[in-house]
Amino acid sequence: MNLDLIGAFMVGVVGSAHCIGMCGGIASLISIDPNVPKLNSKKITNIVGYNLGRLSSYALLGGILGGALASLVELSQLTQLLTGLRVVAAILMIALGLYIGQWWFGILKVESIGKGIWRYISPIAQKLIPIKHPLHAIPLGFLWGWLPCGLVYSMLSWAIVSGSALAGAGTMLAFGLGTLPSMLAFGVGAAFINQLKSSSLFKRTAGALLIIYGSYTLILAVSMFIAH
Question: Domain Urease accessory protein UreH-like transmembrane, which positions (predicted)?
Answer without folding.
Answer: 8-215
